[in-house]
Write a structure and sequence with these properties.
The complex is a heterotrimer of chains A (about 160), B (about 450) and C (about 850). Chain A is an alpha+beta fold. Chain A has helices spanning about 5-15, 25-35, 40-50, 55-60, 85, 90-100, 135-150, and strands spanning about 75-80, 105-110, 125, 130. Chain A has two domains: about 5-65, Orthogonal Bundle (Arc Repressor Mutant, subunit A); about 75-160, Glutaredoxin (3-Layer(aba) Sandwich). In chain A, strands 2-1-3-4 form a four-stranded mixed β-sheet, covered by helices on one side. Chain B is α/β, with parallel strands linked by helices. In chain B, helix 6 packs across helix 8, helix 16 (about 355-370) packs antiparallel against helix 17 and helix 17 packs across helix 19 (about 415-420). Classes of the chains: A alpha+beta (about 160), B alpha/beta (about 450), C alpha/beta (about 850). The structure holds flavin mononucleotide, iron/sulfur cluster (SF4) and FE2/S2 (inorganic) cluster (FES).
Chain lengths: ~160, ~450, ~850
């Protein structure tokens, strides 16, 4: 990939915000992921050039963080919490249902740690938009609403898709 | 049981549910008055007088006195950085997300006051990557604040300049640990640093740095406006003021409640305006105060009647108030399953730097999985205790030591130690698998 | 030094304040187990193996991150410490494959050893272990087995902190943490082999060594690597009379434990099939095997004939820089006293004149650490003297020494330079003059030069000039002129960056025209040596370019090539070719057949490194010993013996029976080497810096320190042969005899040499320098490295590329005054506009075909051939 001209300009502005260029690795990786839907090796190479480090350092950093998807994941990332509050309020059931229901290239279902939505457990995010107080059926209906275009997904790492 | 909320930092959120996060909503409810007051009273009066007098202790987990932390900055050494810890990842803690999403201007005002007090001109907010809405609102609020002259050059004619960079994490609980956070902010893998040097001496970019939690910072405008002494009248002893508790699990009214420190767990769980009692009126089997890293308490009276007072809990019950999360589990819950899930959390989130944490959390998770799923061997639980003792020597005699750099690894010991304290027989009853055949977990 | 008192396991010791506990404990006999800590790298405190009890400190602090403070009371063997040591080892092993029987490290594995010494008896882990594909290559030379890795970060820290090549990193996290490289970007570091050495398990293994030997079958000897002129200390190991491994030894003043990969794996060439194993003489146009007496007689006859018919001026010797000091000395004595010829040169017109090298104010390698500033006017150290590059990088990056680079294009050092001055070939003296003037208070008006001058004023100490040939396409005279200018910098000292093996030793021992052994000129030392030897040349002779010129004109009737390959090494290849073709009688003293020696009349096969002991002298003038580890292949002979045999046949008996006698004769007769005899060398741990009387502080006798016996992963410390337990440093006896004065360079700029002709607008000025992996025998005959030499590509500034009208990867026609050739071209921002870079000495036609050594610079015409 290459950053689009607008994103390249954004990327340069991001680098300039920090006293050290390397600090921009995470924001640039978010930017690349929102643009492409995943964080490709080419993107990491370009981030390395922009932050003046080796690509291995970008990969080393990015692979530490679970939000960065280093394989294409489709349009919707559905993150279901199963940490303890959700564990005892039905999170695993939601996860199991969605994982079985969506085995496709468009919807990527993942198990995640506590999303800080325990007041509304069980909870999930679709492209980092919160949905709380779920049952398996409600969860499926929400995903369907995204698929039908009634709900608008954000970029894969939570930035608005422009 | 008529304990109610004492709304200081959550007041605007409740008063203006429709627009508390907008600049108009915020200005209509007194935002940035604290900042004006701060400029009026002068730099030194903030930290050394008001914040000190307020007794404010960090709301991020460790409860360290905020004024003391600021005072560690070496004199004459610049630049200095302020970093706000908005990485909220401690299981069942969800107060910071609310404070960011619903009242970002209160946070920005607090940042400006703190930055002014410690002579910092560039502040960072490290916000958890998954908080997409919070990030959007905070960025928006920073832009609005800049437009209104609450940020930028020569703020409100004070001669003080401040810029804020909002930096998103990307899915790593450990980046809530302050030195891992700084590594992450520098574009590195979020692995905690060896201390000393502490961040106050060598923090971000090896410069003196203060790291404070969102709630801690959000409290500052109120301390400045009320006066530190007035604020200190709230709360109890060395646990002054209010705190926002994230109440979750088997209660009728889960949610964030801001109460004065010193009320009891029973108040929090059962007051009609707070937790409202246990779901389906069952009994509390156990609850976890202070987030996943804390040891557990049970439905026993001496636990329920304990006050929300950091020192009391630590000294008398060996638990911490931590991040202010209270997870409640009723009689139907298998404690071994909860312990396993917490161990899985720590194994998933270990940064991998220290051997005992990298290898130990995974081991503990695997054994607890077997136990919780009926594949435990009779000898497993005592072996587990011994493995935990190697991660955290003195496991059964809190406060324990640690063999690791940060407390994440040793936190995996908390659920195991709690099982040992309160549910040993129940756990052993699950360990009926063959004792010799190696079993392989998931 | 500020000492504090610390009690370790009940024993009170005085130690330097601020040192790490793990280090001071070790130095005082208490070994605290560790995996991640390495003395030469920053502590990370990751493995948690070194936990100890410190009175008054809560918990168990790691000894590797805890600095000692006064009154500290430490306990390293309490039950609590023992318990966590057991615990950490058990945890390290839960995911470890325990495949010791098939692991290269088995038998010398720190994890294995530490488990035996400190660990639990058995593991209680019954779950499934982590699995990974294994092993995977991380570079051409190194393989990674992630299952064995214990995540100590030694390799990644080495790559980042020491080598400056952060091409390996940790990836993923927690229990999934693994060492990664970026896809298609291997760990192509010149220093990758060091990671194999310091890995505390068998996770990283070296392709050349894999499955070659078991540690218990190896025997080792301490030696110096002579792949380049830094002479890193190493432990050379063999099994069944085959060299199989070289490990870095930690010599503080020289290599601090590190080796480059070319040095580390270059022993492969010693075992190469192509080695010439028998003497040969030319019969009916063919080189055929013969006996030693036959070959030596033929060689002596050939020389004698030339002497008889055309006198000493018709005899010449090139070489002597690839052997030991003893060999160089024997050649010098043969040539200068027996043959009476001064047509002798250890260099090939690719270095610097001996009067400069031998007479400059000298700097030590360690002076880089404490310099006011470093001025780099020389080759790309990363390519030519790799471990010196590490030292310089450390000075610049870790120790804050300002580095000023004067080079026509970016080098491996440029990224660490605080100022970069970019002369076009021919202009370096001018820049040097302006820099010296600016430092002296006369601003040059050029912002870069003035900034560099400010940097050189910021600290105390001397300025160290690293001086060498940054560009082989321009004549040495321009460098000499620049050196003369830089000599005016405050406290300027020079570290001469000459690369060829023992070139420094050879020059010191008189293998240069106008010089005699011990850094004395023929004029100054003539009488002394006439007495010692019985005769010296009547007048100064020719240097390498002069000899080759004379040979091409048919004036050299006997030419000795002592390990010298002019066709490969001389910047002017056609001159070298013509010279060899026209030389009367050629005696090759060598190990392999090369283009230069293949038409020799006599071929005398010699021993290689590892097959013969002796001494060598590195770039800073440090004499160190090299060891014989295996017996020579076939019937190769050491060069000193060949020289002595030839002398005997020409009527002079040197009387050498053993190499030590040569060493001792040098110590007796060579002024700079006075007193440096076998007795002193055996006892001096870090060798001896010449002249010894001027460098008493560099002499270290006695014990090497406490290391883990047999452990290669922690710094291996040098050991003197005669270990004198805690012996006091004895003053070196001043040498009484009346010796000729050592040569001092007058800093005169050779006449008119510095002026280069103007470049016409369409020409590009050629810059040529070496790459580490090249067309030399070490690389081409080491199977593991043979593939690593890059392809010769002409690099030009992108503007010039566009002006020529070609794209990257296109072939172009390149024409110099000498010849034309087709080359692939690429744009390269690191090359200045108006210059073209072509690496030197890669296999096939290249820069030296284009260069005319008699011209000050080489201009090229580059044309598209599309
Ligand atoms: C594993 C770990 C995770 C943490 N996570 C958070 C967090 O998400 N938010 C937070 O404010 N503090 C967190 N902390 C505490 C911080 O290290 C630090 O003490 C805090 O940000 C200081 O702010 P305060 O003084 O205002 O409380 C964490 C600590 C540890 C050891
Ligand atoms: S305890 Fe765990 S999370 Fe903390 S530094 Fe060590 S390995 Fe990382
Ligand atoms: S040697 Fe100290 S933690 Fe590894």
């Amino acid at each position: 990939m290459m950053f689009t001209p607008e994103n390249l300009e954004r990327a340069r502005a991001i680098v300039a915000r920090y006293p050290r260029a390397k600090s921009a690795i995470l924001p640039l990786a978010h930017l690349a992921q929102d643009q492409d839907g995943w964080l490709s090796p080419e993107a990491m190479r370009e981030i390395a050039a922009l932050t003046r480090v080796e690509p291995a350092e970008v990969l080393g950093t990015c692979s530490f963080y679970t939000m960065f998807k280093r394989d294409p994941v489709g349009r919707l990332v559905v993150s279901v919490c199963t940490n303890v509050t959700c564990l005892v309020t039905g999170g695993p059931e939601v996860l199991e249902h969605l994982a079985r229901r969506y085995d496709d290239d468009d919807v990527y279902v993942e198990e995640v740690e506590c999303l800080a939505a325990c007041g509304g457990a069980p909870a999930m995010q679709v492209n980092y938009e919160f949905h709380e107080g779920l049952t398996p059926e409600m969860a499926e209906e929400i995903v369907e609403a995204y698929k039908r275009g009634e709900l608008i997904p954000r970029g894969v790492s939570g930035g608005r898709v422009s | 049981m008529t304990v109610t909320e004492t709304r200081v930092i959550t007041k605007r959120i409740h008063d203006r549910p429709e627009d508390s996060w907008t600049i108009d909503g915020a200005l209509a409810s007194g935002a940035y008055e604290g900042l004006r007051a701060a400029f009026a009273m002068g730099r030194d009066a903030i930290g050394e007088e008001q914040v000190k007098a307020s007794g404010l202790r960090g709301r991020g987990g460790a409860g360290f006195p905020t004024a003391t932390k600021w005072s560690f900055l070496p004199a004459g050494s610049y630049p200095r950085y302020l970093v706000v810890n908005a990485d909220e990842g401690e299981p069942s803690t969800f107060k910071d997300r609310m404070l960011i999403e619903r009242d970002p201007h209160q946070l920005i005002e607090g940042i400006a006051i703190a930055a002014f007090a410690i002579e910092c001109n560039l502040a960072f907010v490290y916000i958890r990557g998954e908080f997409a809405l919070g990030y959007e609102r905070l960025e928006q609020a920073v832009a609005e604040a800049k437009a209104k002259g609450f940020l930028g050059m020569n703020i409100l004619g004070s001669g003080f300049d401040l810029d804020i960079v909002v930096h998103r994490g990307a899915g790593a609980y450990i980046c809530g640990e302050e030195t891992a956070l700084l590594e992450s902010l520098e574009g590195e893998r979020g692995m905690p640093r060896i201390r000393p040097p502490f961040p106050a001496i060598e923090g971000l970019y090896a410069k003196p740095t203060v790291v404070n939690n969102v709630e801690t910072i959000s409290t500052l405008p109120h301390i400045v406006r009320m006066g530190g002494e007035e604020y200190a009248k709230l709360g109890v002893d060395r646990s002054t003021g209010t705190r926002v508790f994230s109440l979750s699990g088997h209660v009728k009214r889960p949610g964030n409640y801001e109460v004065e420190l010193g009320v009891t767990f029973r108040d929090l769980l059962y007051s009609p305006e707070l937790g409202g009692g246990i779901t389906d009126d069952r009994k509390v089997k156990f609850f976890i105060p202070g987030g996943a890293s804390s040891q557990w308490l049970t439905g026993a009276d001496e636990h329920l009647d304990a006050p929300l007072d950091m020192d009391f809990l630590e000294q008398n019950l060996g638990v911490m108030l931590g991040s202010g999360a209270v997870m409640v589990f009723d009689e139907t819950v298998n404690p071994a399953l909860v312990a396993w899930r917490l161990a899985k959390f720590f194994a998933d989130e270990s940064c991998g730097k220290c051997t005992p944490c990298r290898e130990g959390t995974g081991w503990v998770e695997k054994v607890l999985y077997r136990i919780a799923h009926g594949q435990g061997r009779p000898q497993d639980f005592d072996m587990l205790l011994d493995v935990c003792d190697n991660i955290s020597p003195g496991v059964t005699t809190a406060p324990f030591a640690q063999t690791t750099i940060c407390p994440l690894g040793p936190s995996v010991v908390s659920p195991v130690a709690s099982l040992q304290k309160y549910f040993r027989d129940e756990v052993l009853a699950m360990c009926t698998g063959p004792s010799t055949i190696p079993v392989s977990a998931s | 030094m500020n000492l504090v008192s610390v009690t370790i396991d009940g024993r009170e010791v005085q130690v330097p304040a601020g040192e790490l506990l793990i280090k001071v404990a070790q130095e005082h006999g208490t070994y605290i187990p560790r995996f991640c800590w390495h003395e030469r790298m920053k502590p990370v405190g990751m493995c948690r193996m070194c936990l100890v009890e410190v009175e008054g400190v809560r918990g168990l602090p790691p000894a590797c991150t805890t600095p000692v403070t006064d009154g500290m009371v430490v306990r390293t063997k309490t039950p609590a410490v023992k318990k966590v040591q057991d615990g950490v080892l058990e945890l390290l092993l839960v995911n470890h494959p325990l495949d010791c029987p098939v692991c290269d490290r088995g038998g010398e594995c720190p994890l294995q050893d530490t488990t035996l010494a400190f660990g639990p008896g058995e593991s209680r882990f019954v779950e499934e272990k982590r699995h990974w594909e294994k092993p995977i290559p991380v570079s051409d030379l190194v393989l990674l087995d992630r299952e064995r890795c214990i995540q100590c970060a030694r390799c990644t820290r080495f790559a980042d902190e020491i080598a400056g090549d952060p091409l390996i990193s940790f990836g993923e996290r927690g229990g999934q943490t693994e060492i990664i490289t970026f896809p298609d970007e291997p760990f192509a570091s010149y220093f990758s082999g060091n990671t194999v050495q310091i890995c505390p398990v068998g996770a990283l293994t070296a392709k050349p060594y894999r499955f070659r030997a078991r540690p218990w079958d190896l025997t080792g000897a301490e030696t110096s690597c002579v792949t380049c002129a830094v002479h890193c200390r190493g432990a050379l190991e063999s099994t069944s009379n085959q060299l199989v491994r070289l490990l870095g030894v930690d010599s503080e003043p020289v290599n601090q434990g590190w080796l480059c990969d070319k040095g580390r794996y270059g022993y492969e060439a010693v075992n190469a099939d192509e080695r010439v194993r028998h003497p040969m003489i030319r019969k009916r146009g063919e080189l055929v095997e013969c006996s030693w007496p036959e070959a030596l007689d033929a060689a002596a006859d050939g020389i004698q004939r030339a002497l008889d018919l055309n006198g000493p001026q018709s005899v010449a010797l090139l070489g002597g820089a690839n052997g030991t000091n003893e060999e160089a000395y024997a050649w010098a004595r043969l040539a200068k006293s027996v043959l009476r010829t001064d047509n002798v040169d250890a260099q090939l017109g690719d270095g610097l004149p001996a009067e400069v090298v031998l007479g400059l104010p000298r700097a030590l390698i360690a002076d880089l650490d404490r310099a006011r500033g470093i001025v780099l006017l020389g080759p790309d150290l990363k390519e030519e003297l790799p471990v010196l590059y590490l030292r310089m990088r450390r000075a610049a990056v870790e120790l804050g020494v300002p580095l000023i680079e004067i080079a026509p294009r970016d080098t491996g050092c440029s990224r660490y330079a605080s100022a970069r001055l970019r002369p076009v070939p021919g202009e370096q003296a001018g820049i040097a003059r302006r820099l010296a003037a600016a430092v002296g208070g006369a601003p040059s008006g050029d912002a870069d030069i003035d900034e560099a001058a400010v940097l050189l004023a910021g600290r105390d100490g001397d300025v160290v000039v690293v001086l060498g040939r940054g560009d082989l396409a321009e004549s040495a005279a321009t460098t000499v002129a620049a050196a003369a200018e830089l000599g005016a910098l405050p406290g300027a000292k020079f570290l001469v960056a000459l690369r060829r093996a023992n070139v420094r030793g050879a020059l010191d021992l008189g293998l240069a025209p106008g010089f005699l052994p011990g850094r004395v000129t023929l004029a100054e030392g003539g009488d002394h040596f006439a007495q010692a030897w019985g005769g010296v040349p009547a007048a100064p002779g020719l240097g390498a370019l002069g000899i080759l010129g004379a040979a091409s004109e048919g004036r050299i009737h006997a030419l000795v090539l002592a390990g010298s390959d002019p066709v490969g090494g001389c910047p002017d290849r056609s001159l070298a070719r013509n010279a060899i073709a026209a030389a009367g009688f050629v005696i090759a003293v060598d190990t392999f057949v090369t283009e230069s020696n293949k038409r020799a009349d006599v071929f005398l096969p010699v021993t290689m490194w590892g097959e013969e002991s002796g001494t060598v002298t590195n770039v800073e003038g440090r004499v160190q010993r090299v060891a014989q580890k295996v017996s020579p292949e076939g019937i190769a002979m050491p060069e000193w013996r060949i020289a002595a045999e030839l002398a005997l046949r020409l009527g002079v008996d040197f009387g050498f029976e053993a190499v030590e006698e040569v060493t001792d004769e040098i110590a007796r007769v060579a002024p700079a080497h006075a007193g440096v005899d076998t007795t002193l060398l055996r006892r001096a741990r870090d060798g001896v810096v010449l002249p010894v009387a001027e460098h008493p502080d560099e002499l270290h006798f006695g014990r090497a320190g406490v290391g883990l016996a047999g452990a290669s992963w922690d710094p291996i410390l040098p050991t003197p042969a005669e270990v004198v337990a805690d012996a006091p440093v004895e003053p070196v006896e001043p040498v009484e005899r009346q010796m000729p004065a050592l040569h001092v360079w007058s800093r005169e700029v050779p006449d008119g040499s510095a002026s280069a002709p103007a470049r016409d607008a369409y020409a590009l000025r050629l810059v040529s320098g070496r790459t580490l992996y090249d067309g030399g025998i070490t690389v081409t005959l080491s199977p593991s490295m043979a593939q690593l030499a890059p392809r010769a590509v002409l690099l030009v500034n992108p503007h010039d590329r566009d002006r020529i009208g070609v794209s990257d990867g296109d072939e172009v026609r390149v024409t110099s005054a000498r010849t034309s050739m087709n080359l692939v071209l690429r744009g390269d921002a690191a090359t200045s506009a108006g210059c073209a870079f072509l690496p030197f000495n890669l296999p096939g036609p290249g820069a030296s075909d284009l260069i005319d050594a008699s011209a000050p610079v080489t201009d090229l015409r580059v044309e598209s051939i599309r």
